[in-house]
Design brief:
Length: about 290
């Protein structure tokens, strides 16, 4: 009987899990380790290469452009994580209160997440360069008379606005799941005890939704650190390099400058940074979880 069970399990593993596992290994695991190997060489992607050890990593840590882009990325990530999760939480709260048309609103707010980053960047590039400038000029709104994409102090905010607009709907879905997962008995008990809406949100619903916060912050962190397509289609790192995010900097180092090995070293440093931040964030979040 046990042999038949093992054969049965092996059969379904080979049918369903093995193809997916092979694709994951071919698409993710092998390229990851091959890229890590390349970071210890002097390859430019075309000629033969030799082993250089940690020289590329030393170059990365001494590269001012890499750290400048990292500083810009940190500002971008902090703003996006905070604004995206606040907006996603607020929208989720509003569309779980039983208002009319809330299912349509959920779909509408989620729709921007379905657009690709390149398309999204091109659409918003047109909005910032043409639509808002024309509106600002005709209605005499000083802040919109000149395009933000040409202002080093405002250009980064265009990336932040587009990212928050795209991701908040996705985070909304997770927060909606968190709200609907809260036991009605707990909320009814709060009503009996005389809690108002604000007290229920702050003292009951938010503590019970810590798992949703952990997931949303983790996803927002990882997505924002690795954003590339929106960066290249919306700002191209301009003006004057003020919007070069770290992923775009890695792309330019590897493919524009043909320093594949250095680019791979930068990519692996970015991977380590994201992994450490994500592990710390998840660890802290797990400690804050409470049971219903």
């Amino acid at each position: 009987m046990k042999r038949n069970t093992k054969k049965y399990n092996l059969k379904f593993f080979l049918i369903f899990a093995l193809p997916t596992l092979l694709i994951f290994i071919l698409v993710m695991v092998i390229p990851f380790f091959y890229g890590l190997l390349m970071s210890f060489t002097n390859t430019n992607g075309m000629s033969r290469f030799s082993w250089v050890g940690f020289q590329n990593y030393i170059t990365v840590f001494n590269d001012s452009r890499f750290w400048n882009s990292f500083g810009v990325t940190i500002k971008y990530v902090i703003a996006c994580v905070i604004l995206t999760n606040i907006l996603g939480f607020v929208i989720a709260y509003l569309v779980t209160r039983g208002i009319k048309g809330q299912n349509f609103l959920r779909a509408a707010f989620f729709t921007p997440n379905l657009l690709g980053g390149i398309v999204l960047g091109l659409i918003w590039n047109f909005i910032f360069r043409q639509v808002l400038v024309n509106v600002g000029t005709k209605l005499n709104i000083p802040i919109f008379k000149d395009t933000w994409l040409a202002d080093p102090d405002k250009a980064l905010w265009t990336l932040i606005i587009v990212t928050v607009w795209q991701l908040s709907g996705y985070m909304m879905i997770i927060y909606v799941a968190g709200f609907t997962g809260i036991s009605k008995d707990v909320l009814e008990a709060a009503d009996i005890d005389g809690c108002n809406s604000l007290q229920k949100i702050v003292k009951i619903e938010m503590p019970l939704m810590v798992p949703s916060f952990v997931i949303c912050i983790f996803l927002t962190l990882s997505k924002c650190f690795m954003v590339y397509d929106t960066n290249i289609s919306l700002t191209k790192g301009e003006p004057f390099g003020s919007t070069v995010l770290i992923s775009y900097n890695i792309y330019r180092e590897a493919f524009n400058n043909h320093n594949y090995a250095t680019g791979q070293a930068e990519a692996f440093v970015l991977f380590i940074i994201i992994a450490v931040l994500s592990i710390v964030q998840v660890h802290i979040g797990k400690k804050m979880e409470v049971e219903q």
